Amino acid sequence: MAKVEYVYIIPGLEDIYFTGIMSSDRFIYSRMARKVYFYSRKRKAGLSQRSLLPLISELWSGFSNEEKQNWSDAAACMGLSGWQLFVQDQCARIYNDIPGVATPSLLHQSWVGQLHVESPADQIKIVQIHPHFYWVSKKIKGTKNMYEPVLITEDLGLPLKIGLNYKSELIPVSTPNLAKFYARFWHSYQGQDRYTELEIPLNYSTDWVHAEATLTELIGYVIRYDVYIHLTGLNGDLYFDNVEIIHSGQNWARDPYCKDIKQGFTRAFYQIPKHWAAVILPTGAWYESVYKDF
Fold this sequence. Notes:
By secondary structure, the protein is α+β, with helices and mostly antiparallel strands. Helix content is 17%, strand content 40%. The chain folds into two domains: 51-104, no CATH class; 113-290, Jelly Rolls, CATH 2.60.120.
C-alpha cells in the first residue's frame, strides 16, 4: 500500500514550492524530494575553508621519499596513487578521532570488512550472490533522472581463483567450530544438479595474511555460484580485505576493498544485494565496514 502525505501550501506560494522539489527514486519507493542545486561560489568558498586537504597535504609533504613509496606500493592494487590512498586513510582516521598517521600495508587499505560474534551468538554467515545474469538500473547519459535496465552477464571461465587477506581473533565456544571462506557452485551435468565447493579454511588467531584457492575443473553447465564467509562455534572478530573472485581475466568480487560490505539493495542493484547479505545473523552477531588502527 502506498504511503501518502498531505502538505498544505499557503496560497500564492505554489510556484515557489513546486520549483524546489522533484520526483525521486522510483526503484526503492516513489516520493518527492528537494532539488539538489549546484554549489554557488559563496558555498564553494565555505566548503574549501572546511576542507581537510590542507592539513593532509602538510602531513604528506613531511614524508620521506621512502614513506611516499610505501604508500604508492600499498595503493597499487586499488589502481590509486600513494597520495590518493593517504587522503582516504587520513580522512578516515580524522573521522574516527584516531590521532597520528597509519602505516601503509600491502594486505589491507583503510576500510576493511569485520565480522563480529559474541554471546549469545556463536555463528555468522554472509554471502555475495553471483547468478549467471541479472539486471541493474543505469542512469541514461544526458538526462537528470532517467534510468534504464542493463543486463549483467557473468560467464564463468575456469580456472577460477578465490582469495582474501584477513586477520582473525576468534575463540572456540562450542563444537563443531569452523571458520572458512568458500565458493559454492551449482552446475548441471546429464540432467542432474550438482554442487561443488572451493574452500579456504581460516585460522582462528593470526595477524594479516593472504589465503587463496583455485578451481580448475567443473563438469557440466554452471548455473550460478555464491561466495560465503562462515564462522560457527566461535566468538570474536574476523577482519578481511582485498577480496578476489578472479576468472575470465578479471576480478568479479563486488566491493573488493570492503568500503561498504553491508550495502544491500540499491537504486542500481534491485534484483540482488550489491555487496554482501546475511544468511545467518543471530542476536550478538554483526558485520560492517570499519576503520581500525592495526
